[in-house]
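Feature request, filed as a ticket because there's no other form

It would be nice if the structure record came with a short human-readable summary line next to the tokens. Right now we just get the raw output. Example of a typical job, pasted below so the devs can see what we mean:
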Amino acid sequence: MKLWVGLRQTLGRILWWTAAGVLAAWMVSGVPGGGDEMAIVQSGGEARLISYQPLPEIQEECVLMPAGTLMAATLQQDQRLLSQVGGAPSRRAPLRVISDPYASPSSVAVDVVRNEVITTDENKFQILVYDRLDNTPPSAAMSEPKRIIAGSRTDIEFQCGLYVDPLKGDIFAVNNDTQDKLVIFSRQADGNVPPDRWLHTPHGTFGIAVDEEKQELFLTIQHDSAVVVYRKTATQEEAPIRLLQGDRTLLADPHGIALDTENDLMFVANYGSTHSVSPPAQQDGGRKANWPLERSHAIPGSGRFLPPSITVYSSTASGDTRPLRVITGPKTQLNWPTGVAFDSERGELLVTNDMNHSIVIFPGDAHGDVAPVRVLKGPKTGLRNPTGIFLDAKNDELWVSNFGGHSLTVYPMSADGDTPPLRTIRTAPVGRPSLMIGNPGAVAYDSKREEILVPN
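Raw output as currently delivered:
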């Protein structure tokens, strides 16, 4: 008897869901646009609008769309549907919104041939281009860029690394989080335009450097503590030619990267992290041998804590190779070292410190727990969570992107102490706080303190 009841209940569920599916299909086919765009269903006494985006070229696998592209497509469909049926919005407007309406510069580069400064905006998914000599007046809300590359066709999301081809002016922009692509635009790019080419990269890329003589492109991989090297002209699904990863490398949440091409050296800025022991990368010479990367998430009891550091390698290093030198320790003042640049003329290494709002400068051959030779820091500097750095050797200027300050600031190359910038390009009104919301993954409410908690 119990078996019969169970079978009857199961059969009933199957028939119910089958009928529901047939009804939904019939309702979709009966509205403007057919089954590819929308359906209006009645549930609980109130009409609900349901819309979806058909994914292109689906055969027998799921196609994942970038978050920004999918969101834009969904919003466009909702607007198109509303115009067709004259209905009310399908979602209720929020009571309040916590967001930053202004650009937050995360990296910076100068096109010295064309006298332009370029920055990536990680907050609003944009690439902004200004005149190098722009200087926002105190009375102005912000400086207006010459060009803006933004929109769903650009494949720009959470961009943090930036490189400008010194001859052609092409813009190489690194996506860090929701879009695993390096996108390359020509210097004429403007508006919502697709990249001229793209390269599929490992998840969590951050910093970028290029050896023009060897035509090699270097990327740091934040989450999996690695450095991958491609041909500079690599495109789409091309595999890297080298991979640096493993326990002996001491890479720990790497961010910025810089090259000393005269001495074939590579400098990597590491936030520091709990580091788990991982197997060495394969080194059999095959192009696919170093792909995919080894995951390096910490396992309790199997790893160790690595503090902030600058690790130095041969630029040809691969596999699980130890660094030649390590700059680390309390004397270094390293605190979330993010951007790094090497001054070949002065033989100096310059590092942005995100968390203590400073630029620390070391000799190029520094090693161990050493104090910087100079520190650019103080209220007059305008530094606020500096993340990107660029050395303009032609004009003897040091550029910094202030992710927490809505600004780009430029200094003499030899700046020290509490030195005010030569010029400032602001992307927001004076005093407007930067929320620095990168990619919030959850939200909680503390009722005792009446605070909203967001892991970012």
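Something like this underneath would help us a lot:
Helices lie at 2-29, 67-85.
DSSP finds two helices and 30 strands in the chain.
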